[in-house]
Amino acid sequence: MRIRLEGNRAEVTLGMIHLREVFTVTAMSRAFPDRAHPRKYRVYIRVVPRDNR
């Protein structure tokens, strides 16, 4: 599954922390600056669900 996080650096970092609690992160892009909002960023993440057995 591919997820896009958008926000300032703190929001993107916090989002990553929460995603890693539920999913296994298999790949992550670098932080791309948002063209419309200069202080916001986009990060693309590939995840797979964790096996919680």
Describe the structure.
The protein has one helix at 9-22; strands at 2-7, 23-28, 32-33, 41-49. The protein has one domain (2-49). Strands 1, 2, 3 and 4 form a four-stranded antiparallel β-sheet that branches. The mean pLDDT is 93. 26% of the residues lie in helices and 43% in strands. The chain is α+β, with helices and mostly antiparallel strands and 53 residues long.
Brief characterization of the structure:
The chain is 26% helix and 43% strand.
Topology:
Blueprint (H helix, E strand, L loop, with lengths): L1 E6 L1 H14 E6 L3 E2 L7 E9 L4
Antiparallel strand pairs: 1-4, 2-4, 3-4
Task: Supply database-style keywords.
43% strand; 53 residues; 4-stranded antiparallel sheet
Using the alpha-carbon principal axes, give the shape. Answer: elongated
Q: Please describe the biggest sheet, giving its number of strands, its sense, and whether it closes into a barrel.
A: 4 strands, antiparallel
Order of helices and strands: EHEEE
Radius of gyration: 12 Å
Helix segment count?
Answer: 1
Structure classification: alpha+beta
Unreliable segments (pLDDT under 50, ≥5 consecutive)? none
What is the β-strand count?
4
Average of per-residue pLDDT values: 93
Distance between the termini: 20 Å
Q: What is the percent of helical residues?
A: 25-40%
* Total number of domains: 1
Beta-strand portion reads 35-45%
